[in-house]
Specification:
The protein is mainly α. It has helices spanning 22-45, 55-62, 69-86, 97-107, 110-123, 151-154, 170-173, 177-188, 191-197, and strands at 128-134, 140-146, 157-163. Helix content is 52%, strand content 11%. A three-stranded antiparallel sheet has the order 2-1-3. A hairpin with a 5-residue loop joins strand 1 (128-134) and strand 2 (140-146). It is globular, with a radius of gyration of 17 Å. The two termini are 30 Å apart.
């Protein structure tokens, strides 16, 4: 199976007024994400056992397998980035009432959810991701993963993700990760997509 770079669900300049400039998206999507897709295709092409497998199958198959570490890293980054683009919206930040009720039930309110999500994202040492997942018990939870890891490997249902690798925010925020996280939660997060997945 040949993997391709999925198009952004919005124009590269669509988030500029909301705190993510065109240069960030051109570098992040057009360079970083594309590099993972290209490398994954090279790895799969060299290994017949990996061909005709979906992205999710490759992640699960390679998780914890040192011989397939490069496959895991690149497949994970392709999947994670694709999820991240869907977690952004030019009209982001507005929380639908259905999701607001669920955040109240599981976190004690929208502000408590945002505080917990920000704490996880700020506390992620080095490169990684912060996730809002729907647990098997039907409750929303916040998790974080390092590098290319994601809830895919553990069977979690990821609803929203924030990329906290430096290339996600350095052009716009330099080393101010907390400001990037606040902007994501209040102006960019695609809560409509989260509500649709509940």
């Amino acid at each position: 199976m040949k993997f391709t770079l999925p198009p952004l669900p919005f124009a590269t300049n669509a988030l500029a007024a909301r705190g993510m400039c065109q240069e960030t998206l051109e570098l992040h999507h057009g360079k970083h994400h594309l590099a993972y897709v290209t490398k994954l295709n090279e790895l799969v092409e060299k290994n017949a056992a990996l061909q005709d497998k979906s992205l999710e199958e490759l992640i699960k198959l390679s998780d914890g397998n040192t011989d397939l570490a490069a496959v895991f890293n690149n497949a994970g980054q392709v999947w994670n980035h694709t999820k991240f683009w869907g977690s952004l919206s030019p009209t982001g930040g507005e929380i639908p009432s259905r999701l607001e009720r669920k955040l109240g039930e599981d976190f004690g309110g929208v502000e408590k959810f945002k505080e917990a999500f920000k704490a996880a994202a700020v506390g992620q040492f080095g490169s990684g991701w912060t996730w809002l997942v729907l647990g098997k018990d039907g409750k929303l939870k916040i998790t974080k993963t390092s590098n290319a890891d994601s809830p895919v490997a553990t069977g979690g249902n990821a609803l929203l993700t924030l990329d906290v690798w430096e290339h996600a925010y350095y052009v716009d925020y330099r080393n101010r990760r907390p400001d990037f996280i606040d902007n994501f939660l209040n102006k960019l997060a695609n809560y409509e997509a989260v509500a649709a997945q509940l």
